[in-house]
TrEMBL record:
Gene3D superfamilies: 1.20.1280.50. This is F-box protein. Residues 1-42 form the F-box domain. Pathway: Protein modification; protein ubiquitination. It holds the Pfam family F-box-like.
Length: 247
């Protein structure tokens, strides 16, 4: 049996890592170990969707497709770094306007420092902000449309990010508002879920009937599973806009 035939038989019993190491021995081994008939079953079993790319570009070797698939899988498994932005660095400001009033003066203004917010026991980015003077909502008419603005301010007024800008909704029984947030871009290392699409969420919590708002609940929702993102993911997202030099 010719040496190359022996080598070919041995190659079929090697795992991807061993094949890659053996291909570094010499040029002839590199050619043998990079053959499509070796890497096709490996690529097909591990990354079947990538294997179909051969149809669009037959010149791409299966070895290359397998390397691409491994790199992508490794990036997905990487744990994002801890955010440099802290909740204590933020101030939540919320303004509620009557929609039929052209004045820039809101009839309800809330400002809550991050260090005064109560963390959810599940670690999600959702907070309840108490409304002290909730009698002001008694002036609202049934099903009246209101406008809500929600900003996150970096301490010392070093930056501000608009979570919600003049978002319209009914100030009636439900009082629910949502607005899609901009993409953080490729430089913001969030979890895969948080990168899939997120929205700012705000709800008015009523008491004593429909007229008095006792609290305002704010948070960030993932549109994939419609669940609130974690505090760390939300801080990494806000960090991209408030601390651009830190991402």
């Amino acid at each position: 049996m010719a040496p190359w035939e022996v080598l070919d038989l041995v190659c079929h019993h090697l795992d991807p890592k061993s094949l890659a190491v053996a291909s570094c021995v010499c040029k002839s081994w590199l050619i043998s170990m990079s053959s499509d008939h070796l890497w096709k079953p490996i690529c097909t079993s591990n990354f079947p969707s990538l294997s179909t790319l051969k149809i669009t570009n037959p010149t791409v070797p299966y070895r290359r497709l397998y390397v691409i698939g491994c790199s992508a899988a490794k990036r997905r498994r990487q744990t994002p770094p801890k955010p440099r932005l802290l909740l204590d660095n933020l101030i939540f400001t919320i303004n509620i306007f009557r929609h039929n009033n052209s004045s820039s003066n809101s009839f309800c203004t809330l400002a809550k420092p991050g260090n005064e917010l109560t963390l959810d026991p599940n670690g999600i980015f959702k907070f309840d902000i108490d409304v002290d003077n909730y009698d002001v909502f008694e002036a609202l008419e049934d099903e009246e449309v209101v406008r809500v603005t929600w900003n996150v301010v970096l301490e010392g007024w070093r930056g501000v990010f608009g979570m919600m800008e003049n978002c319209k909704g009914k100030g009636g029984v439900e009082g629910w508002f949502s607005e899609e947030l901009p993409s953080p871009g490729c430089c913001c290392r969030l979890s895969a879920v948080a990168c899939s699409g997120i929205v700012a969420d705000l709800k008015l919590g009523f008491c004593d009937g429909r007229r008095k708002v006792k609290k305002v609940s704010v948070g960030i929702l993932c549109v994939v599973n419609w669940r609130y993102v974690s505090v760390d993911d939300a801080l990494r997202y806000l960090q991209h806009f408030l601390l651009p030099c830190a991402v």
